[in-house]
Amino acid sequence: MIYAYFILVFVTGGSSQAHGWTDVVAQLLALPVLAVGLWRLAEQPASRVRTLGLVAMAAVALLPWLQLLPLPQSWWLWAPARQSLSHDLATAGVQGVATTWSLTPAATLRSALSLLPALAMFAWVLGSDSTTQRRLLVLCVALPVASLVLGFLQLGAPQDSLLNPYPQWAPAMNGTFANPNHQGTAMLVGLGVCLAFAVGAIGARNPETGKARNPWPAIIAGATLLLGLPLTNSRAAVVIGVLMLVAAPLGMAASALRRSGRGRIGAMALVASAALAALGLSAAMGWMKVDEVEEIRWIMRHATFALAGLHLPWGSGTGSFVPVFQQALPDSLLLPNYVNAAHNDYAQTWLEGGLAGIIVAAVCASALAAAIVRYLRSHSGDRRLVWAGLLGIFALLAHAGADYALRTPALMTAAALLAALVIAQGAHGVAEDRRHLVPSTI
User: Among positive and negative, which fits the CA dihedral 44, 389, 198, 200?
Assistant: First the structure.
């Protein structure tokens, strides 16, 4: 059930814009998946890590619904942008202005519904076993590879071909996505999974059969994804991919050394890995700033951050970016086409969510941090699953600084899968520790 649902969301959810009946089907099917996931969660042993994960899930789900509530007039006017809006409306003779938290309630409602597939996936994975999680990770590799193959086929087909799920745009190695940059993000997630399983197989044996684990399937799939990244024409994706290729083995080696009792060496390797990651990200930012003067995305990011300050403390409302940004559009962005996103998820979250959005993001980060700390202390979970989740999340968050891939249902659901996997493995360690504390009756 969950595998078919993930395939459906990935194949049909490659656009950040509403895509008709396929979105409705995915959202309706999310309800039974969410119900079954919560039912399975109720059978899991008590765990603070899992509870914190559920709190983060609830915070993400509730934020857009809270933004549909009305605010007292005096509170509504706290934001400078709303004071200006109220003045302009009064000048135009408009009376009885709604004081809903969100400036665009209809768009916020659509955003709330668009979260359903990701919430359903999170609940299911959080309550599933490691076997199910491994199979879902296989899909995280297989689906981007299939999308890459589809991208090759699209290049040789006409724009209105059945091979192009978004015929309003010419094919550009985008596969199942509307934007080739988002195709690159999906490939980075698959690459992270391949790296975790390839490195994790070195010197390891299958606990059931006792045979050495075979790293070659992961190596071949990872190489395919890595070589395909430049074809998406995403500079950021290429830099992040090369960075993951170098930093992932160091990070996993540091974890293994700490687990074997050589904590000092492991800490040094971890510091080296973090320094390498920071250096790589700095190089990536430098590369992306080569043509910064003409780079429209750079202008959009700065304009969004500046606009967000005028909408504090409430934010403009989830899903409100397009009309809100259009009203404060800088002269340098007067283009024939409208700006559909800030091309920086952090800036857009700050604008749309305000202080509440930052609090929700902090709760989510705390849940992940608690799971990671618990895993590092107990090492009870499957290290390949943990690192696959961490590398995939790193790729998504790193690319979010230059794009808006997390606004698509496909990658939003993949992010929920990876986050739930990391938290579930951390909770697994807690459960095992508690079982060890129970006196044996034999």
Answer: negative
